[in-house]
Amino acid sequence: MTKAVFQNPMFHDEDKAREALEAVRWPDGAICPHCGNSDQDKLAKIEGQKKSHRPGLYYCNECKGQFTVTVGTVFERSKVPLTKWWMAAHMMNSNKNGVSAHEIHRALGVTYKTAWFMMHRLREAMVVSSGTPMGGSGSAIQADETYWGNTSKRSKSYRKGLKRKAAIVALVDAETGEARTFHVRHGVSASEVREILVTNVDRKSTLVTDESRLYTITGGEFGDHQTMNHSGREYVNAAGFTTNNVENFFGVFKRGMRGTYTFCGEQHLQRYLTEFQFRYNNRSGLGISDGERTAKALKGIEGKRLTYRPTN
């Protein structure tokens, strides 16, 4: 990330930042968040008519309501300038290993608490509804599980053994590169893995896993089940299938968590998974630039609210 990037007016001009956010949220014109009215003839921008009018204010003739681009989003009622929201969003989306709240705090000149909360709001915006099942006939879906906990033996909260660590299941479509992640609380079992698989993977798909017993029975419910003998150092089986993609995702996630965030309470783990999942699904390898990734993340601000209390 270069200094030239932050020369863009939306990073230091509040009006430009608001206009950029309006373009992302309302590409075809403003929409009233109160009644859903999108008729531009019934929406009026009343900014500047009175000194008391806040910048970017709209009036809806349909429901008689007033709104700005932040109403009904994770930014609603935030006192942080939109220029800083844009900068924080860009910083989070321009590094595949993430960025720490301390770095956001230093770069933006906000308190650490504010930076931490901003990042959680942006993670909320990155949540993408997993609508249709992944894969289908002729598609291979890689599945794997890993465990995450405090790995520093010097820490008072060091947890030894898989049973005391948080379980994570990830799915990756080998063809499209899409990943989905799941924090499984209180340990992972075959029944929990089955629920994730049958809900998120098309039954006609080829399921690709290691030889863990977690997948043995459920694998028979799919079009085909290909396995790797990892204990025998098999990483590509005789049929040419591999779980390298999902393992690569876990590698990026763990490097970021250890090197950037260093610690994550289990109650926040799914939020961090969502962040890494979003960047992975919109990575440069798929032809998506940092700016496009940032704009796509901010498209998700609508219809979501996050207060400080639920993040504790």
Structure commentary:
The structure is a single chain. The protein has helices spanning 14-25, 82-93, 101-108, 112-125, 190-200, 213-216, 244-261, 269-281, 290-298; strands at residues 43-45, 58-60, 66-67, 140-148, 166-173, 179-184, 206-210, 224-228. The chain has a five-stranded mixed sheet, sandwiched between helices. It has a three-stranded antiparallel sheet with strand order 1-2-3, with no helix packed on it. It has a domain at 140-281: Ribonuclease H-like superfamily/Ribonuclease H (Nucleotidyltransferase, domain 5, 2-Layer Sandwich). With 312 residues, it is α/β, with parallel strands linked by helices. Helix 2 crosses helix 4 and helix 2 crosses helix 9 (290-298). The mean pLDDT is 90. 32% of the residues lie in helices and 13% in strands. It is built from nine helices and eight strands. The chain is elongated. Pfam families: DDE_Tnp_IS1595, Zn_ribbon_IS1595. Residues 133-281 form the ISXO2-like transposase domain. This is ISSpo8, transposase.
